[in-house]
């Protein structure tokens, strides 16, 4: 019997998804070389990771960029950098995803200009700008401008690409970071769809897109989701997403063409769910998470990028990324997954799971819309508080053992791992000289351009930003004149202002049911009495541009529940601002959170500032993704404790903070 004629098999295999690895570090030239190697290994699309200064609109020589240049992505400060990034790579033949949000318009302008310089037609260029600013206020923190101004930029990009780049996905509604910030499947679907409604409403109401073309807008909206290890639930989540998207676009926007209403999404499976302890277990986690977005043909991702096994340790090496790419290739080309129709059609279990998520997500969406939409829900702090509370509950379940994490809270006995035997060599190391080279490069770029053209372009940008004009044309003039990333963002800061999002701590629930918390509360109160103060005061600081604040917020919530008075001013602070807050608030302890890899620059700057302010005795602790040799360096510099992802028990961490305060004050 012909194997292909077996019952249930499709006459033709489903086509594989676009296979990407999220890549970028050090410099445009180094990342270009990495792109070329990955493409040669069979990767079918590019996914560009930009460094934090680029994501937040700063040049490499800005004070806030110190320690951050080239660490979590590639620095792109001007047109020359974008040329170097894609040198020898034909943009017209690529499907390029750019994880960029606040300055998405700027990076798209750079990318499109290089494409034209290569001889490509913009109308042929395919790819995606993430361009979802809402989740930045809730999770990653790379926002710049207030929500309304940011949505205006999003709508401008959509209107421009509709006209000039019809194959481009101008916005990628991103629920990925909502899950990392604590969202349940119901919240992830409901909050992401609330964002999509805000984006589509902004486009509909901006006056740039005729009503009859809203279907064309809808069909270019894509989503970027997270897939956790509970992969059956993830399959249901994706099917629920598709059901609700079809419903919303048909009923709210009158899109009658079912092809235009199709839910299109790409995915990166859960990076923050990877563990530093027994990191070899991350391989099976990644595989299971990949199944959650590929098993169901009717809800299958059209682009997949997988993290590497060692991302909880630091920056992956090319070999680590290759391993993740090979996982996708084995599933797509060796298994028979793509030969069958949807495996869950008619499943009573799956139908019930999907219906439950759909019902809950409808309720969440309705609640946000009743508040006035997602912008109002951001500005009032509702969304952030909901996520902080949800993440606190998730952490509680892990701490008490209800949720098992193999190698972390159960089955912790282990043999030495040959994967990490090389210590720091098990991750990619970014040369500190990269930052100085990038700073020198941007200064040379400024010195070699026509200042009059730059001034004229920036003047036009500021002038048009004060109107309702589409800012893409003014941005393209800035690109051609040689304006830098920091100058473009700086001009818009002058018009729109900057924004500090709510921290979400006020409405966050505490750690109810934690038996160990009562004892820690007693130690906190006793220590405060012995010091003669009303309450112990903890400053939680996020130095530099690292906006991943989930861990800092959970520490702040648990410390508050233990009786600390917590001072937390949010993300993106200079060392000087943190030192000033420590002095003004007369705190007993400074806790710094750094997940971007900039700890060797950011932490000593705070220590030096405290010494200069006359408080070398004020204890400082640090938490983050910090390799063991770096932890030794920080302790030698004067840091009292270093906490890493292996320290998952929050109440235990708070207890240790009390010990640090007692040691610093010579209390027994």
UniProtKB/TrEMBL annotation:
The GO terms describing molecular function are: cobalamin binding; metal ion binding; methylmalonyl-CoA mutase activity
Q: Which CDD domains match?
A: MM_CoA_mut_B12_BD (cd02071)
Superkingdom classification of source: Bacteria
Q: Which UniProt keywords apply?
A: Cobalamin, Cobalt, Isomerase, Metal-binding
The record ties this protein, via InterPro entries, to: Acid_CoA_mut_C (IPR006159), Cbl-dep_enz_cat (IPR016176), Cobalamin-bd (IPR006158), Cobalamin-bd_sf (IPR036724), MeMalonylCoA_mutase_a/b_cat (IPR006099), MMCoA_mutase_a_cat (IPR006098)
Q: Which SUPFAM superfamilies is this protein grouped with?
A: Cobalamin (vitamin B12)-binding domain (SSF52242), Cobalamin (vitamin B12)-dependent enzymes (SSF51703)
The B12-binding domain covers 535-668
Cofactor(s) listed in the protein's UniProt record: adenosylcob(III)alamin
Oligomer status and interactors: Heterodimer of an alpha and a beta chain.
Q: Which family does the UniProt entry place this protein in?
A: Belongs to the methylmalonyl-CoA mutase family.
PANTHER family xref list: COENZYME B12-DEPENDENT MUTASE, METHYLMALONYL-COA MUTASE, MITOCHONDRIAL-RELATED
State the protein's name. (R)-ethylmalonyl-CoA mutase
State the organism of origin: Micromonospora mirobrigensis
